[in-house]
From TrEMBL:
Keywords: Membrane, Transmembrane, Transmembrane helix. It comes from Fluoribacter gormanii. Gene3D superfamilies: TspO/MBR protein. This is TspO and MBR related proteins. It holds the Pfam family TspO_MBR. The chain crosses the membrane at residues 7-27, 47-69, 81-101, 107-126, 133-157. One of its GO terms (cellular component) is membrane. Its main location: membrane.
């Protein structure tokens, strides 16, 4: 990687971390007034775990996006890049859907679609033998599955009859 690409990657990682920070501020506004009062899974981690995990995952996602963009002219990469961008926007929109609008059921369906998109990304990446992308996207995929479980349990336990 040349110096220009290294600087671009650092800027992208910092941008993703800033977006994550801003989404965290949106979340914080509803933690005590709403989220803390919800019935949740016994597997729900403490709040600080979410901050640490998402910081790591956003760095991974920035690297994945950078790598896909750098390889966008390779066969199948355009499709993977498109799916990546769609799921990324969906990721960023999930926070206001869940924490601002309190759309528990819709948020659950939304995150399930994200899981499906990432499964497709993983399958396409396995076929293209892009091991670097695969190693960075799998932890995110596994966290999305866990987050889907948490969202689904919250929806099930807090749905109004």
């Amino acid at each position: 990687m040349n110096k220009k690409n290294g600087i671009q990657l650092i800027i992208l990682i910092l941008s993703f971390e800033l977006i994550g920070f801003l989404l965290g501020l949106l979340t914080q506004a509803n933690i005590y007034s709403w989220y803390e009062g919800l019935h949740k899974s016994i597997l729900t981690p403490p709040g600080w775990v979410f901050s640490v995990v998402w910081s790591i995952l956003y760095a991974f996602l920035a690297i994945v996006g950078f790598t896909l963009w750098q390889n966008r002219n390779k066969p199948h990469t355009k499709t993977v890049l498109s799916l990546y961008l769609v799921q990324l926007v969906m990721n960023w929109l999930w926070t206001p859907l869940f924490f601002q609008l309190h759309w528990l059921g819709f948020s659950f369906l939304w995150i399930l679609i994200m899981v499906g998109l990432n499964a497709a990304i993983i399958l396409m990446t396995v076929r293209s033998k892009e091991k670097g992308i695969l190693l960075l996207i799998i932890p995110y995929f596994l966290w999305l599955i866990f987050a889907s479980y948490l969202n689904g349990i919250i929806w099930a336990l807090n749905a109004q009859a």
